[in-house]
Amino acid sequence: MFTGIVEELGEITAVENLGDACRFRLRGPVVTEGAKHGDSIAVNGVCLTVVDHEGDEFTADVMAETLDRSSLGALAVGSRVNLERPTAVGARLGGHIVQGHVDGTGQVLERKPSENWEIIKISLPADLTRYVVEKGSITVDGISLTVVDAGPDYFTVSLIPTTLALTTLGLKQPGAPVNLEVDVVAKYVERLLASSQGAGK
After folding, report:
1. Closest by alpha carbon to 131, among 104, 110, 158?
2. Do residues 181 and 45 lie in contact, with contact meaning Cβ atoms separated by under 8 Å?
């Protein structure tokens, strides 16, 4: 489990095409500290498994389905990525419960800077609209954020200078793809309500 609090802005240093998969080598001095084979690290909100680790770099294999269903397929050497290790048992839950399972992708539509923060508008797939509510939680490229406005096919988030400086959302311009993970609690509630309504028939 992750919390959506990005630990560092890493970088793709190599990409190897494996046919039906891809192997990424990533640089991240913070998340590689103490890392070992089999550990999980979230990369732009996608939970990946450490295959190898050397110095401040690690490799991770990404299967075709993940490449197709997330924005990881658009990554190349030099791409910056958000990195987070799983939260430790007993640690503070700084963001919200994040599984590292991408529900879909959106696209940065618009950026509106102000003196102390910036509003970013992101497109929202139709099948995820029902899970996104004003003041609710959503994960964008692995970042736990609060929804400012929830429209029929978009949502907005407000970013403070720290988020802009330390995550990929400070770099992405209109047209850039982002990974989206909705609040898992909303999905559980939907399933429970559907079950209870079915039982009442």
Report:
1. 104
2. yes
